[in-house]
Amino acid sequence: xxxxxxxHGRIATDLRVSLTDRCNLRCNYCMPAEGLDWLPDDKVLxxxxxxxxxxxxxERLGVQEVRFTGGEPLVRRGLVxxxxxxxxxxxxxxxxxxxxxxxxxxxxxxxxxxxxxxxNVSLDTIRPETFAEITRRDRLPDVIAGLMAARAAxxxxxxxxxxxxxxxxxxxxxxxxxxxxxxxxxxxxxxxxPLDAQHAWHREQMITADEIFTRLEKEFVLTPSGxxxxxxxxxxxxxxxxxATVGVIASVTRPFCGDCDRVRLTADGxxxxxxxxxxxxxxxxxxxxxxxxxxxxxxxxxxxxxxLPGHGIDDPAFLQPARPMSAIGG
Length: 330
Description:
This protein is about 30% helix and about 15% strand. It contains ten helices and 14 strands. The longest helix has 14 residues.
């Protein structure tokens, strides 16, 4: 087995697999109201191709965790079978799903039965009017129903990912934390990153980790959890003495690039060695041209070797990736 080692000594063991660039929400910090031009169907990896590449990653390259992402992965036909087939691989990875939870109430039980271990749900507010403002859709009841279905199916710990937006929901941090604790979910606040399709992100508009702490500490006592962080992106804190915790993922102001263990595969078969990479390595074309598993693994190893030491957001020369988050996967 050849590890996915970069030139700075980091080894990728966590694979994020984007199954589609399509989404059924239009979050205003992600994409325009009219949506985007989706990938043509013939460019998107088939179910067989997805499972084959995951198999190469787990059996030849040391990948231990697989996170299915989108766009919105629940809109991908065949998702349950992709999960089932991944669970049957010789080196079964831990499997999770990042989703907006629309429709999860209909699929949570099937996904759990197929072998999915847990879910992360994106939810920035529990106020219907704010949800509609952010997502441009009036679907909050469906998201909550999906969360409850995930919990009932045993897809835990159920994690909730939230982005605070200045002047929109940044006054709701405590409300959201209290609700998630009451429901038994694990909340993680994430700094807004420069990955929107509109390229409208401005650092001065971003709610920073320090601001998140300030808002939360008006209502709660936060104490560092003391748990080793390792390569996990979230800094964990106990809430009011525990056992509940809250996490803050400060990708911009407190980057954790030095401990990164992630690699990404886009829906059209491109390896991205960093979320903010401006170059990609094509696996789809050689795979469809008849490349062997060994040849694809070698291409993957070479793609990871060139990973930069950091995302460079603070560099004056930083350029936002051409692909938005919806086409990369989280």
